[in-house]
Structure formats: structure tokens, C-alpha cells
Amino acid sequence: MKRRWTRYLTPGLVFQSVLIGGGYGTGAEIARYFGRYGLLGGLLALAAAAAGWSLLCAVTFEFVRVFRTYDYGSMMRRLLGRAGFLYDLCFYAMLLLVLGVVNATAAAMVRALTGLPSWVGVALLSSGVMFLVLRGTEAIEKALSLWAYVLYAVYLLFLAAVFLHFGDAVISELQKGEAAPGWLFGGLRYASYNLICVSMILYTLRDLRSRREAVTCGVLAGILGAAPALPLLLAMGCDLPAVLASETPVMAIFGRLHMPWLYVLFEIVLFGTLVETAAGFIKALEDRMERVLCPRAGLTPAGSAGSSWPWLGRPLMTGAVTSLGICVSTFGLTELIDKGYGAICYGALVLFALPMLTAGVRMLRRAGT
Q: What is the CATH number of domain 4-367?
């Protein structure tokens, strides 16, 4: 049994790890969904995103605790009944997109930093993913939690460097009090684009003992998920118009800092998040398949000691899915992401978030625990 503070923090740290997915690497998402509303407006939008995640996580975590649905398939079957398979379709589509993107991103990062061929980045990513997934549930939890601490430390170091050089500019930007209309929608929209990540971390909830613990974990998960965006958003205040105009806002900031060692450290940490996100998706898929192929697993958390997953099942599936991600990364993904990502996320909103916050709450009230 985990210590209380570990039970409270682990779900949120793992949520943050699979959520970030290297998406903060260029800062483009932060600029698009938060920075565009002004620095104050961006902070308000970020708070809205954190609140949205916290609400959904709190209800979902309590649902999982009460009904003991430690994989997303069991949870959706309990929530939607026979229609639960529709969520599988959303998850599979997102899995393909994410694996393709993280492999392509890993290749580009290693090539840019070292000049080595793209396959080196893909090989490093794939090796890290397979190592994590095959080590099992507890190893994944520990690795993702520890790397989250490393990420927070580097992001805070980055923010400190920005304030050391451009603190007056950041404070001046904040004092403008600019909050362009639409910040609330922007924050909630960003939160909705990452709903699937909530359903990927259910295996971290098996030690929750009470409703208070579940709700507290959910609120903390929303806050921890949004936390890495805060230093990046504040750092953009050093020259917000120029940073927003850049295709890679983080590079624009580092161009002003002239600290190449910090940039290399920043990219290394972000490469680790790529491994975490890919491992998180594959872990969630394998837990789902364990329930399908080994129905006798009963209420034992998938992937834990005592589960009935064949000993070759996870290695074979991990290798197959990792290879599939490498294949997908060779295709042109830009148009597919632009058009497919939004549709998948709206599917998750309709099939997961809205039912959980309505029917799921009613089910919890009836359960009375």
C-alpha cells in the first residue's frame, strides 16, 4: 500500500506525464491556446483548463474507485454499456496519431541536436518505451512520477533564467492586464483536446480508499497537468508579440537568452516526455486488451501482480504497437492531425466527458459510497 502523500500525487504526476507529450516542446500550443489572449488572459485560460481537468478527474477517479474499473475499457462499459466500444475507436485513432507524432518528433529532435540520422531518435524512443512498458505497472508509475519532478525542476530553472534577464519586461506585460475576449473558451477547448489522457491513468487509482482521496487526487491532477504550461506562458511575457509571431516560441525565447546548455537540457527533458506519452498510451491499450483476452482477471487491476495476462502477451503487443507507431511516423501527418485530432477529441468529449459528468454522477449517487 502506498503512503498517503504518494496516493494523492501519483495519479496527477502520471497524468501530467502522458498529457505533456512533447507538445510543450515548441511552445506553439501554449501560444495558440493561452498566449493569444494576452499574458493575464492566458493565465485565466490556463486556470480554466486546470479547473476543467480537475472536475473531470475528480468525478472519474471516484467512479473508478467505486466500481473498480481500473482500465478504460471496463470504465466505458460500465458508463455506456454496449456503446462503450465507440470509445475504443476514439482511443485507437488517437493512439495511431500520437505514436506517429512522437516518433517523428523524436527523430527531428535528435537530428537537430546531434546531427545523427532520424532513425537514431526513433530507436532511442522505441527502446525507452519498450523498457518502461515491459517493466510493469509499478515501474511505469515510478518512472513517470520521477520524470515529472525533473521536468518541473528544468521548467522552473528556465523561468528563473527568463526573469533574471527579462524580469522587468514580464512584469510590465502582466501589469497591462490584457485579457482578450474568448479566454474562457480557449482554456476549456484546450482541456477538451486532452480528455483521453484522463482515461489512460486509471491503473494509478487502485490504492484509493475514500471519496475524499479520489476527489483530492482529481483536483491535484488538474493542477499538476496545467503546471508545466505556467512557466512557459510567463516566459513568453519577455516579448509577447514577437514570441507569438514565431512558429517555435520556445526557440524565440532561447534566442534571446543565449544559454545553449539550458536549451539542450530542456530538449533532453522533453524527449523523456515523448517516451512517457508513448508508454502511457501503450500501457492503457494493453490493460484494455488484458480485460478482453483474460476475462478471468476479474477485479484485479490490469497489469498488476496476480493478473492473468499471458507472459508473452505484453512483449508481443508492445513490440507490435511500437513498430506500428514507427510506420505511421513515415507518413505525412500534418493534414491528418489538423483534421483528425479535433474530431477524435470531440468524440472523447461526447463519449467520455459529458456522460461521466452526467450519467456517471447519477450512478455514483445511486451507489451511495
A: 1.10.4160.10
